[in-house]
Target: Peptidoglycan DD-metalloendopeptidase family protein
Amino acid sequence: MPAKGKHRRPKSQRFTRSIAVAGTGGAALALPLMGATGAHAATPTASVAQNVEKTATTAPIATKKAAGTKMYAVKPGDYLSKIAGEQKVTGGWKKLYSDNRSVIGSDPSLIHPGLKLTIGKKAASGSATPSSAKTTTSSAKAKASAEKATKATKATNAASTTSSSGYTLPVEGATIGTSYKVAGSMWSSGYHTGVDFVVPTGTTIKAIAAGTVVSAGWGGAYGNQVVIQHADGQYSQYAHMSSLSVSAGQTVTAGQQIGLSGATGNVTGPHLHFEIRTTPNYGSDVDPVAYLRSHGVAVV
Model:
């Protein structure tokens, strides 16, 4: 009997450290009976730690992307107002040009395929905090003030564009992009034969003085154009228009709408190309700004 008891105790110890196997539909599931807690307690903790570490690593990267900028490569047929609209740039093409002036140069209408433009910061996603809401309100007020100032400036310009001599600017409130006689290989004459007024597509184009329309239609590289003969024998030319409002032989008055600006012909973006000529034909150009000023028109 002592011999049997002596062999049962070691057998009992081996049994408590062994694996109990339960059959389940022909499969076996091994369940540790001893040491399970000590062997596997660290596993959930390690998994959580890994997840926390992963979140902490990726969170700053996501924030950085949300707060960053993106690059846009100019494609054939692109122009600033088109890009600004498609990319939803706050402030429109003027803001896009301001942000990329060092890349584009002095003329916003001259952009070429492959040019890399920086699109501004993306709006932060999620609900606005009180501080961001305050910033948004301040920005809205600043924008409203800027719009009022712009309207006031345009109104002032509109009131002063027509001179006592009966001459006016071809577009209101526009600035000059490329000036007269700027040299460059992009022009067949070797230089710019007029001035470019920076305006978006659809801007009203006006006759600078009373006269007779000698041509109105397609002008090759000039796109849709109008040429008007004035009383002093000089001719004014308006090019790259999106639509025409007059026809050849028609008489017009100073300030009368003759069409809308656009980007037809050989251009990279919408603007009005304006010339003064001694004949109705290309190659007889004179300084258009000097001509307008000689008739009392203020040109910015």
Notes: Confidence is low (pLDDT under 50) at residues 12-49, 51-66, 122-136, 152-160. The chain is about 35% helix and 25% strand. The first strand starts at residue 19 and ends at 24. The CA atoms of residues 220 and 265 lie 6 Å apart.
